[in-house]
Amino acid sequence: MDTGQVPLTAREAAACIGVHERTIRRAIGRGELLAAKRAGSFQISLADLERYRGAGSRRAARPVHMPPTTERSRRTGVHPKRRRLPPGTHGGPLLHLVAPADRRQAWLADLPRPLTSLVGRDRERDDIRALLGRDDVRLVTLTGPGGVGKTRLAIHVAAGLGPTVADGVAFVSLAAVRAPDLVASTIFRTLGGRDAGTGFAIDRLYQLVGEREILLLLDNFEHLVATATTITGLLGACSRLTVLVTSRAILRLSGEHEYPVPPLSLPDRPGGAPNPRLSFDVAPRAEAVRLFAQRASAARPGFTLSGDNAAAVAAICHRLDGLPLAIELAAARIAHLSAVALLDRLSLPGPARLPLLTGGPRDLPARFQTMRDTIAWSYDLLDGADQALFQRLAVFVGGFTVDAAATVREVDDFAILEGIGSLVAKSLVRFEGDHAGEPRYALLETIREFGLERLAASGDEGAVRQRHAEWCLRFAEDAGPRAKQPGAAPWLDALERDHANLRAALAWFTEQADGPRLVRMAGSLWPFWQEHTYFGEGHRWLEIALDLGREAPAADRLRAMTGAGTLAWCQTDITRALQWHEQALDLAREVGDRMAEAFSLSNLGVQAIELGDHDRARASYELGLAIARAEGASEAEVLALQNLACLEWIQGDTTTAATRSEEALALARQDGWDWIVPMILISYGFITVDRGDDERATALFHEGLTLGHARGNLGDVTVALEGLARVGAATGQAARATRLLGAASTLREEIPMPRPPTEVAYFQPVFATLRDTLGADDFATLLAAGRSLSRQEALAEAAAFQVKPATPAASSSIAASRGLTAREVEIVRLLIAGESNREIGEHLFISSTTVARHVANILSKLGVDSRAKAAAYAHRLGLG
Fold it and tell me: SS3 for 516?
């Protein structure tokens, strides 16, 4: 404090630099302005005020000693008086009004003091404090569904701001107030007014507040919104009053600033699914998990978050939408249930959540004793039309658009939008943002479950679910086939967003034994299921559909059979894949669908390779290629070329395999068959690494990985990781190769996508050599480290993988003159060293069959007829 000057109060300091007194008090609270406090009043030196204004104030510059022009001075021409100060000091305003300390402290003491700590909410607290700190904001409404923690957050914010508010913070609970005309009198009594009974005149409240600076916290206003204009009048009459409101419904008042209170933060769930490998170190970072752990430890002493229960606790918090009340009610069950057992019960089909979410503390209001009562409080405030819409919207799982909602309510888009807006304003429906230009909405799952209970009680459940399922069928038939067509990206995104709705519709058609619709829908969705690696789920739905839909039209069954066979193959269920593709081929020929016939032949060729029948595979591919070209079906042509490239590679003819891959890649890109491009690139990468061109192979794997990840195809991502590992093993990067194989193994298990027999045989020497190179213990450690990588970490590991350009050898021109590839030069050098085909294969991670094919090519190019002659000749050329 500068003792050479007369100190100023907060109000005087504010007047000096032309800001609101709240700005000064909050600057003091933040440590931006130095001040002492004596007898309940701030004491600020002019020097400190000058430094504060110079350091960061954006107010209009004026001499500190001149009070700002006020509205009153503009009307009257009279400026505030200045008191006489000692010589050498600046002038200052005369006003020095400080609230009585006892009243201010009494209001602060009236703030509820929760018996449990607030967990998280740092961002929300800072946001709300920043809002209340603005001079142009005097009304802030915290909105959100019941149980989201609005009251706790508001009390926490108010308590923190209390010391900076001149006349204190007042808390008014309105939960028990039923008559709207009692709102003003309840506030009046809370602020110390007397005789506020019948005939209460609101002017008495205006006079009581007057020019005092008060932060008024009005809690639970949602059932009193009809009298919200009381707040407007109060703010208009009392210029230094600020109001903070908690309400499940926005008040719709002029000057109102809404702050929707979100649920607590949750652990990430890659792909929307629970993460069974959730790190114990990562889980507690989520606010919801921390709250659960804290409340569970109170219910069962000794409970701690651990590596054994972290994934289950995280999944519980997801099931409960991150709602604090729901989490607290569930955590209380830890007294007699393990986290895993609790999760199992919350995951049961049907209304599983609400019956468990009971038994709240007896000292809470009745509506917070159970989650059902909490939601019912909001539901009972709705009018009949909003209640009916809420019930019907509960049929949507994971969200909905206006168009979809209009279908189940059977009204036009405008009417449905008005109804949705009303439910959003009352915090029963959430606006999820725009997707592809369309607004999307959703209900939290605990709230949706309540809505389903009410829908069942209404007697309209069957009709509403049928309309919902029919909308999903139309959407599936429109979007599903596009998942593999040019420009698929937005359709894949749309299908993923509504996948939960599509599942619900499939379940409804199954319950109704509606085989024809089920076949149509599942048959339309299989391209999406393959692209986003829902192999097991999609295969189950398709088999159920084909069983129930035996009388479905042939074209619908043919599409579903093709999908069933393809997804069975993706699971390495070769027997089932073969059965479905054979049936599809027979049916395609029966109905004369030549394109379907070409696809079936290619698919059967894949199964033949896995059964070791390469002749049948080649015949199937070549016939399918001929049909595709005759029909002008470029997609089927690309698939046949790609499969022929794989067959040539397996048989050791990497030169022909590369030619086929180039042809398939060019045609796929030309005609926009983006879905197969990553697969071609990755397969071509394996062919290229086996030819010895590690740099080119790395580039192919990287591109395939990038494109596959962009499409959401985890199958492509997995195989690309394995391809980079293959290059790493071949180029002396054993540690990184092992980590990548570990990451790929985890993805295969998560999908799940077992390796087919041909890939198992291909990677056996890779695993064996890495184990020998690193030693069994280090190999196991690195493999486990790779398995523990998150998806993003695995992608980052892959992105960092590079092969250093090889230094040109002196003999490179000689090798090139004989037409030898880089791989063939490697094999020549090993021939000179006297290694057998098996030893060469183990050294280069390729099969003996592939080595034999390379040796035959080398003999031909060098013009010799034996391995010994080739070795001697190559040695003379300087290749050894």
Answer: helix
